[in-house]
Fold this protein.
Amino acid sequence: QVQLVESGGGLVQPGGSLRLSCAASGSIFSITTMGWYRQAPGKQRELVADITTGGRTTYADSVKGRVTISRDNVNTLYLQMTSLRPEDTAVYYCNAEAVVPPMTYTYWGQGTQVTVST
């Protein structure tokens, strides 16, 4: 089992910045890829960015150049967001894949609200 707890969301003005954190606990040794997803009201949950254990990153086109995903060597995932836009408003979820051969498990955090507004 893996538990994920996000923090760092809040209200920010357009053009501002936020840094989200996700702390993993439990069977963290089994975690492979970690990522951030978001879900805006009335929309499907979508990938924002993810990062493998080897450090390879993937970004959604809508956030490229404005967002940086990173992870430390222990148990924390980060999402640095800059030049925020109103359309970035959503609940942001931390995601982790854990591999215990032959099974792969997917875990989600509870989400943290990001609101970009004047």
Remarks:
- The two ends are 40 Å apart (CA to CA).
